Amino acid sequence: MFANMSQKPAQKPALLVAGFHHARERENFARLTGLLDRPSANPGGASASEPNPQFFSDNLASFSATLAGVSSETIVVRDASDKVFQTVTYEWSR
Question: Has this prediction a pTM greater than 0.90?
Fold first, then answer.
C-alpha cells in the first residue's frame, strides 16, 4: 500500500457524482407526482369521457413504472480539459 502512495491517480477527480435508487424511491416519486397534479386536476373542465392524462401522476409516474426493472443509476462526470466524460451505470434488479 505504501509503495503506491507516490503514484498519481489514473483519472482526474470527478466534477459530479450522483446516484438515484429507483427501487427505493419509486413509491415516494408516485406520491409526489400525485401531489403535484392535484391543484390542476381536471383542468379546463375536461369531461370524464375525454380525460386528459395528468402530466406528473399519469405520464411521469408511468415512465417510472416502465423503469421498474432499474434498481439504481449512478452518474460520474469528469473533465479532461478538451472533453467532458460522463459515465452512467444502471443496475438492474433482474
Answer: no
Instruction: Take residue 15 and report the three cell numbers written for it.
Output: 466534477
Question: In this structure, is the dihedral angle defined by the CA atoms of residues 28, 21, 75 and 4, taken in order, positive or negative?
Answer: positive
Q: How far apart are alpha carbons 2 and 13 in whole angstroms?
A: 21
Residue 32 banded pLDDT, cuts 50, 70, 90:
confident
C-alpha radius of gyration, the chain, whole number: 21
Does residue 74 contact residue 19 with C-beta atoms inside 8 Å?
yes
Going 64 to 65 to 66 to 67, the CA torsion angle's sign is positive
Phi, psi angles (nearest 5°) of residue 78: -130, 145
Cα gap 91→75, rounded to integer Å: 12
